[in-house]
Amino acid sequence: MKLRTILAVAAGLAISTQVASAQEDITIAVAGPITGQLATIGDQFKIGAQAAADAINAAGGVGGRKVVLSIQDDVCDPKQAVSVANRIAAEGIKFVDGHACSGSSIPASAVYAESGILMMSPASSNPLLTDDAAKNGWSTIMRLYTRDDAQGAFIGPWIAEKYKGKNVVILHDKSAYGQGVADAVKATMNAAGLNEVMYEGLNAGEKDYTALVTKMKSLNADVVYFGGYHPEAGLILRQSAEQGFKFQLIMPDSIASPEFWQVAGPAAEGTLFVFPSDPQAKPEAKEAVEKIKAGGFAPEGFTLFSYAVIQAIAQGIERAGTDDPLKVAEALKDGTPVNTVVGEITFDEKGDIKNATYDINQWRDGVYAPIKP
User: Is residue 241 predicted with pLDDT exceeding 50?
Assistant: First the structure.
């Protein structure tokens, strides 16, 4: 074969390789509790992310490249989250929609930062996630969700005003998420002039909280703020009802799921919880909500936030002109809003969203809706 022919063939192979490389799928890992007690959150993650990927691909993908998902189960367990993160890194995946629980996201973030992977959580709210990342110079750790300190600043003073002179108990489940948000509420409520009559951590996963209920009953608790998840909240309410003990339960965002009512039953009636302003009501979410509902799933809880993470990553890649996670993170933090189903999102230098707003929701007859504070 002549040299000229050899060079032509080599050049042709190089061009075809570049084209193939340019058209490779963009893989995004969806990491969360796919199994276990909090699997309903995992369902929300998966369905929201897949709906976003489908919509992006139907519109031509990201620069012609298809978005595909890799579902990863951490069971909201810190050790398993680290194993998942290492597996994602070993597989060469550059982007993560996850994790859910702050206790999983925080340790996993160190693996992602070291591997140069962009992680964006649609649910983890403990401030340490992005605060520690900023201290360590980890620019690829972000969240498309609100922070506990912001949620605490919203609901703590409201509790102090609404229940002035009442006996308030603050509980948490000792997790990074549960204790983090409970401490934030405690601090702002105390600063607003109301002190709790009891502050206590409980062991998540237990089935009998009657001793705790008896203690709260002896204190004549009027209000209980519980930083935790729906399995424990539901059991506490049911076991309180069995003792004829009624109080106003207030929760963070974790009980935006039908499973809360399934666990608690009628004892959940009137329960209040804080959640970012209803994403389903956003005009930007209308088409996505209709499609997800048509598939037989209610896009509650973190569904649309997971959807928005996929949108943000896709827009970041387009804006950066590359799928280099460092450059994508930089492009997302440049002050230009990202258009998502939960509205326009602007990230600060830490990778947190700016100007978060909240609703106070109430459970009635098995469904929840915002109330006027």
Answer: yes
